[in-house]
C-alpha cells in the first residue's frame, strides 16, 4: 500500500525545530518579560514566571496526551480509507463527515489541533480539515449544551446555530478555491 506524502505543518520552512513561528513567540515572550520588568520590577517578573510555570504544569499533560493521540490517529487510520472518505476528492461527503465530526468533538483546542494534524497526515484534504475546524469552532455541541443554552437561552442559541450552520461548508468551499489559486 502506498502512503500519501506526509503532511508537514511547517511546509516551506527549513527542517528545524525552531521555526519562524516559534522564534516569533520567543521574541514576543522576551519583549513582554522585559517590559514587565521595566514597568513593575523584578519581583513582579518572578511572580509572572511562577504563574506561567504553574500554567505550564497544568496544560503540559493535556498537550502531551493530545500530541500522542494525533500521532496515533495518523498511524492507526488507514490512509487509503481516510483519503476515500475525507481526502481531496471526497467532495460533499467529506465535508459532511468533517462537519459532523467537528460538531461532536467534545475536546478543546489542545486536543482538537493535534487530532486535525493527525487526520491531515493520514490523508484528509485541506478543505475538509477547514470544514472540521470551522464546525468545531462554530457548532460544537458540547459548548452549545454546557455554555450557550444555560447562559443565552434556547431562542438566542437556536438562531445563532441556524445562522452558523452553513459556515463550515462555506469555509471549506472557500478554502478549496483559495488553495487551487495558490497551487496548494
Describe this structure in words.
- It is a single chain.
- This protein is mostly helical and 184 residues long.
- The chain has two domains: 16-76; 78-184, no CATH class.
- It is 79% helix and 0% strand.
- The protein has eight helices and no strands.
- The protein is globular and about 55 Å long.
- The two termini are 24 Å apart.
- The model has no long low-confidence stretch (mean pLDDT 88).
List keywords for this structure.
globular, 8 helices, mainly alpha, 184 residues
Short description:
With 184 residues, the chain is mostly helical. The chain folds into 2 domains: 16-76; 78-184, no CATH class.
What's the topology here?
Blueprint: H1 20-40, H2 42-76, H3 79-86, H4 91-104, H5 109-121, H6 126-139, H7 141-164, H8 167-182
Helix pairs in contact: 1-2, 2-5, 4-6, 5-6, 6-8
Kindly name the structural category. mainly alpha
Q: How many domain modules?
A: 2
Query: Could you give the count of β-strands?
Result: 0
What low-confidence regions span 5 or more consecutive residues with pLDDT below 50? none
Amino acid at each position: 500500500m502506498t502512503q500519501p506524502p506526509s503532511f508537514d505543518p511547517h511546509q516551506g520552512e527549513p527542517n528545524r525545530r525552531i521555526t519562524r513561528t516559534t522564534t516569533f513567540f520567543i521574541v514576543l515572550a522576551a519583549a513582554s518579560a522585559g517590559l514587565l520588568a521595566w514597568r513593575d520590577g523584578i519581583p513582579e517578573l518572578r511572580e509572572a514566571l511562577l504563574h506561567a510555570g504553574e500554567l505550564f504544569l497544568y496544560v503540559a499533560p493535556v498537550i502531551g496526551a493530545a500530541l500522542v493521540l494525533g500521532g496515533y490517529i495518523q498511524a492507526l487510520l488507514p490512509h487509503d480509507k481516510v483519503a476515500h472518505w475525507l481526502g481531496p476528492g471526497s467532495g460533499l461527503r467529506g465535508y459532511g463527515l468533517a462537519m459532523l465530526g467537528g460538531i461532536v468533538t467534545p475536546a478543546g483546542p489542545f486536543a482538537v489541533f493535534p487530532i486535525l494534524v493527525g487526520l491531515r497526515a493520514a490523508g484528509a484534504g485541506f478543505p475538509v480539515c477547514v470544514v472540521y475546524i470551522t464546525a468545531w469552532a462554530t457548532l460544537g455541541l458540547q459548548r452549545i449544551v454546557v455554555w450557550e443554552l444555560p447562559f443565552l437561552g434556547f431562542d438566542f442559541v437556536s438562531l445563532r446555530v441556524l445562522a452558523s450552520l452553513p459556515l463550515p461548508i462555506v469555509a471549506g468551499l472557500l478554502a478549496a478555491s483559495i488553495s487551487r489559486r495558490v497551487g496548494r
